[in-house]
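quick one, 334 residues, struct below
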Amino acid sequence: MTWKEACSILGVSPEAPMNEIKRVYRQRMLQLHPDVSPAASYPYTVQEVNRAYGFLKKGEAREPDRGTAREEASRFWDAPLNQHAYREREIYCPAEGADGEILGHFSLARGKYLWTPEEEFSLFLQSIHHCARQILEEWEAAHHYPGVPSGQGLANQLPLLAELTYLLAQQYVDGTALLEVLAREEAPAADGSRLFALPADLEGCSRRLEPGEALYPARVRQHRLYVRDRAGQELGYLSFPDNRLYYAVIPLFEQRRVLVKIRLAAGESSPAAETSALTAGGSRRRAGRRATSGPHRLQLWLKLPPEHSAMPEDLNLRIRQLLEGGFHGTNVPV
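---
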């Protein structure tokens, strides 16, 4: 039996410290006790769990050797770390066939690595999604979530999974560094604040807008920034031509750590005016309605104060509150 196999039997990460291993071992034994859970569905027996724990306990004195694995991984992946992240994640790398076709992906390293441009962003999101699912599965097993039919556990509650994924992603994305790559930095303000200019789109607006018209933040709801006009009328919400900007910009608004200026892009033709195009088999009236729902191209300026910090400090607390809410049913649809 190897360390990795024993950890797999217990359901812990190979990087888990011994106090975490002991805690999970007690939970597994309680889970497998016939008086507590007569219909236990854990895939390993009491004897297998005991044998795995005994192996790990004997190897406790050799636990520092696992640091060598981290050092070995760092030879393959060198990126900044967020030591305060809720947990480690996998770094996925695409696996290519002989002809260059993508066959899947494999884990290159594991750690609290921040995203860098060298990591394919779609694989980064997949890594975070898998991390969130694993956290929910472990949380449910540890707390004996009651009365949940098969296939409807915490990890299958899509709103809960999506929210946890969003919070975890913030721990691995340095929004300022992402803006440095994807936005245009302008001369700093007199007070030392950093200024970034970037494109954005206004979705869901049916009103005619004038080129250069100023817009204003209205509210943030479900991780969308809604904007209003000068009169206070809500117009729609922002989207971005590069999806990576979503993970840099929206959290700044949610945390109230940024000032913003928004204008309709100069020379932008309002979709509400473009009502003359006809589609095959469609009427002019229907084509006009479709056009009004199209996006308006905006220009966005962000102002980050000099004391701006890259990561909010309360994310672990928010993750914990989310998990506790899911366990008590406040975040789980019934």
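The longest strand covers residues 102-111.
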